[in-house]
Amino acid sequence: MHISNGITCRDFPCTDVKHAGYRLPDLEVDPETISIVLISEAAPLDPADDYYVNGAPQPGSLFEQTTVLAFQDAGASVASLQDVLDLGVYCTNGIKCAKAAYTVKAATVNACAALLEQELARFPNVQAYLLMGDVAIRALNAIARRAGEPRVIPAGSTYKIRGAEYRLGDRFGCARVFPSYLQAGPSFFIEKSKRAMIAEDITAALKLRA
What we know:
The protein is α/β, with parallel strands linked by helices and 210 residues long. The protein has helices spanning 62-73, 81-86, 106-120, 134-146, 158-161, 192-206, and strands spanning 17-18, 36-42, 52-53, 56-57, 89-95, 98-99, 128-132, 166-167, 176-180. The protein has a single domain (17-206), classed as Uracil-DNA glycosylase-like domain (Uracil-DNA Glycosylase, subunit E, 3-Layer(aba) Sandwich). Strands 5-2-7-9-8 form a 5-stranded mixed sheet, with helices on both faces. The chain has a two-stranded antiparallel sheet with strand order 1-6.
């Protein structure tokens, strides 16, 4: 299945993103093989930095480099984003356009969460969601609220809420949810303490695979 088929933003309502960077995951994959979904922040402005291109993981991209390092930190034997995918891990962005500023409005997260929800619905066997940063956390909470469920992740600093067990409701298979920090892009190299916590969260998620 080509994951982005049939998913589209029709009217581009958001005013605080760069629509020129709009991009849905360009990946051909058997959704039955995916047990973990990693959601990062926003699509990069440069397509060469993203996770996928032409239906496959994009070798040498910035997102590949930092994601592979994050999984290596977690003890996974991977050397490429294809290796990460072979572990049953699908990577995507919560915001499908590039950011225009450091933060994005709640309305933007909510609008893109509608696309993300369609995307996530294509994976029937997900056991864990890795939420890499505040945008991903807000997006999944928006999806849960639209389904009539309470927010999955409580308000608060990520370092304070990490470690507790969070789950989506029955509609989403009661999958575990891990609030973490952003692993995609240059910010990954800045704070060693966050990098260590990212590794811990990935390790815990990988243990849940069937």
